[in-house]
# Entry
Amino acid sequence: MQTQKAFMRTQPLSRKLILLPIALLASSMIFCNLPGASDSGQPTPSINVTQAYQTVEAKLTQAAIQTTPTLSSPTPGQAAVTTSAPARTPSPPAPTAPPNTPTPSETCDQAGAGSPIDVTVPDDTVMQPGQAFTKIWRLQNVGTCSWTEAYAVTYFSGEQMGAPASVPLRGRVDPGQSVDISVDMVAPLKPGKYQGNWKLRNASNVLFGIGPGGSAPFWVRIIVAESTTASPTASTITPTPTSTATPRSIHVSGKVTFNPGSKIDLDTLGVNSGNGEDLSYESNPDGKHLLVPLGDALIARYGENQPTLELCQLASLSNSPVTVEELPMGTYLCYRTDQDLYGSARLSELNIDNYALTLDILTWSLPR
# Structure
């Protein structure tokens, strides 16, 4: 028993608590096996108590090795640290990228083709050189915003055909409504096929058209026929009537460049010919450059849109000079020559080095 007590004193408290019931069990086994008569009448061998405790301790040590976490050996001056495998927490599933969702297209301003879209001048209509006409498109507001008078039809690309850069809408067009948009144009002077592309412009100066996403322009496409003019001073053109323009014949047309001090005959496009000149290009003491009517010729500023013969006949023509620097390039003038022929001249270019002026000139012929 002294050996048992000594053993118990040397064990840690936790191990003592574990060994206590085992010691009691061992004691009961010892008392149950004290020398006495057995069933066979043979004495039972006595049990070595120390050996029993050692056997029990060995079993406990083996069980502890199988269940106790491994202890890392401390280095000198460092406390031992017990390590154990942390409980595994399931990793959250990796985030899945959302599917590509198309961004809704802007549908505030979008136009659709009316029925029909070409109210006048269908594609490939044959025109005479310089023939005036009015193109009318029928468009439908298929967007979600109303079109107001702040909206306009605007030249986009291709051949402008003498049309203004933009024409404002004349009234409000609500979603679902259709509108007829008209633009006055003039066929180019050279034969060939011409197409001008146009779009609508909203109040924020953003362009939009027809088709998916409102990205496609609408257009006018014509074919200018071969001219039968034999000379620049006489015209034998017989224009083909159309439903949108009154046919006119051209007396003379072309582009002319002349310098300050020059004179031009608008009936022949001759420069400094000395006979029948209609305009003089002069400089004044202020350094300005003037177009001055000569003889019976008259002139007037018209505007950014190319005029028709009828519009020039109604213009307020006079013999007052026109100051070139006061007019932006692209401005149209109306005039009447000394032979009573009406025409239009477009300020095409002003060379700031020598102030040479280029005019696009068109003089109509009138029946006598």
In short: Residues 250-364 form one domain. DSSP finds four helices and 19 strands in the chain. The helical segments are 2-9, 13-32, 49-67, 309-314. Residues 153 and 239 are 29 Å apart (CA to CA).
